UniProtKB/TrEMBL annotation:
Signal peptide residues on this chain, from the entry's feature table: none
Keyword Membrane: yes
Sequence intervals crossing the membrane: none
UniProt domain AAA+ ATPase: residue ranges: 253-391
An MF annotation (GO) of this entry: ATP binding
Pfam families registered for this protein in UniProt: AAA, AAA_lid_3
GO biological process, alphabetically ordered: protein import into peroxisome matrix
Naturally occurring in which organism (per UniProt): Gasterosteus aculeatus aculeatus
Assigned GO CC terms: cytosol; peroxisomal membrane
Family stated for the protein in its record: Belongs to the AAA ATPase family.
Protein name: Peroxisomal ATPase PEX6
Length: 485
């Protein structure tokens, strides 16, 4: 985020020596050895005074090691050295997670400064500064790039430009041929918009395995067939506060939307489409990424998710299969009470969003009856939207057309006739499965693969919808109960 960069800049401005010590190098096999290394760092700083001593990753030096009697020894030594340091030695420590430090360690420092993730304007300023010595093409729009990099910090932006340079070299090698990458870099490569977009995609894909890698998805309304009323309800909740920020002061904004209904009806697609159409970053969260057996870790994970969402605002946080993450408290059955504590922390984070701007939470579930009822109170997931199947043939035709945008269909195929032959309770997932079955029944000798009328007929012979009439009736009853509340 730029902690060390800020300290370096301040040291240069004040004409002070800067001694950087990574606490990884101060860690030793024993507490006594760690204490000795820390003392040696302070002695080197005194020899360089006036000096700034920068202790990076302080949490590594103070982390518990299993010996309760000795764990406080290094912390006590740090406090002693801080109090004994001369006025001409300024000690600055950095940490990623201040909650990982004890209260005694934090109190040993006179000032605590929190660095927030940069805003869109700050990211633009950083990009201008970082690219000052680079050759940028005329099609490069740093203002647009600052919008696409929501959630990025200084280190991410620096890595983005470095990766864009490598992408530009690969592009030139491919077009020119024969020249080495080192020669191209030495001669000065011009970065084009396509290089930056390629680098942005590479970085986002590399981060996607971590909890919370916000990015703007690429799902348009045309990818979601039908469900017109559902689209309107979600947009009224999400888009209106962005267009009319004065509603926030009146308390008229809602931050939580719960999509419920049968599986395969397009709940996840809807959430992604809203984020795309409103130019918002999208942060998808699944249960296994958050739930952890260690005490306090699950709560820390959910705090981290919302922290990233606030830094990437405007942002949509999407909780898929919410019933597995937030079941009714007291009934989860885990002996350690992990799920109960997780639900309590989730409720606290949702309540805190009332003061946040541009962060919206969308949950999806097939079983709203299993959710903890506190989630459905005003200010949380208080906007309930039923996402059912498209029962009329016109809507089903829209869904089929949306699905087939990614298929090649024979011009002789009448999609209306295909829809008329389908069962009357087909979900979006069913229609996609039908098209996939039709395509895979084609003989492999055909090039290109065109789905014909015969392929659809063959796929329909043994096709059964994934949701039965009985299950649809149960969902209708759930909808009636939730609407009646």
């Amino acid at each position: 985020i730029g902690k060390a960069t800020a300290v370096s800049a301040a040291s240069r401005r004040l004409n002070l020596h800067l001694l950087k010590v990574d606490c990884v190098s101060a860690c030793a096999d024993t507490h006594a050895a760690s204490e000795a290394r820390l003392s040696a760092a302070f002695q080197r700083a005194e020899a360089l005074r006036p000096c700034v001593l920068l202790l990076r990753n302080l949490q590594l030096l103070l982390r518990p090691r299993g010996d309760a009697r000795e764990d406080g020894r290094v912390q006590a030594a740090l406090c002693r050295l801080l109090h004994g340091a001369p006025a001409s030695v300024a000690v600055v420590a950095t940490t990623r997670r201040p909650r990982g430090l004890s209260a005694g360690a934090v109190a040993a420092f006179i000032h605590q400064v929190a660095l927030e993730s940069p805003t869109e304007e700050q990211r633009r300023s950083m990009l201008v500064s970082l690219s000052r010595d680079l050759h940028l093409g005329r099609d490069v729009d740093l203002e647009r790039l600052s919008k696409l990099t929501a959630g990025f910090v200084l280190g991410d932006l620096s890595a983005l430009l470095a990766e864009a340079g490598r992408a530009a070299c690969r592009r030139l090698i491919h077009t020119c041929g024969g020249r080495q990458e080192e020669d191209l870099c030495a001669s000065g490569v011009t970065l084009l918009n396509q290089d930056l977009r390629s680098a942005l995609k590479t970085l986002q894909e590399a981060q996607s395995a971590a909890i919370g890698a916000p990015k703007i998805p690429d799902v348009r309304w045309e990818d979601v067939g039908g469900l017109q009323q559902v689209k309107k309800e979600i947009l009224d909740t999400v888009q209106l506060p962005l267009q009319r920020p004065e509603l926030l002061s009146l308390g008229l904004s809602r931050t939580g939307v719960l999509l419920y209904g049968p599986p395969g009806t397009g709940k996840t697609l809807l959430a992604k489409a809203v984020a795309t159409e409103c130019s918002m970053t999208f942060l998808s969260v699944k249960g296994p990424e958050l739930i952890n057996m260690y005490v306090g870790q699950s709560e820390e994970n959910i705090r981290e998710v919302f922290s990233r969402a606030r830094s990437a605002a405007p942002c949509v946080v999407f909780f898929d299969e919410l019933d597995s993450l937030a079941p009714s408290r007291g009934r989860s059955g885990d002996s350690g009470g992990v799920m109960d504590r997780f639900v309590s922390q989730l409720l606290a984070e949702l309540d805190a969003l009332q003061s946040a701007v541009g962060v919206f939470v969308i949950g999806a579930t097939n079983r709203p009856d299993l959710l903890d009822q506190s989630l459905l109170r005003p200010g949380r997931f208080d906007k309930l939207v039923y996402v059912g199947i498209n029962e009329d043939r016109a809507s089903q035709l829209q869904v089929l057309q949306a699905v087939l945008r990614k298929f090649q269909v024979d011009s002789a195929v009448d999609l209306q006739q295909v829809v008329d032959r389908c069962p009357d309770h087909m979900t979006g997932a069913d229609l996609y499965a039908l098209c996939s079955d039709a395509m895979t029944t084609r003989p492999l000798r055909d090039t290109p693969v065109l789905v014909s009328v015969e392929d659809f007929s063959s796929a329909l012979e043994n096709f059964k919808p994934s949701v039965s009439h009985k299950e649809l009736l149960r969902y209708k009853n759930i909808q009636h109960k939730l609407t009646a509340k």
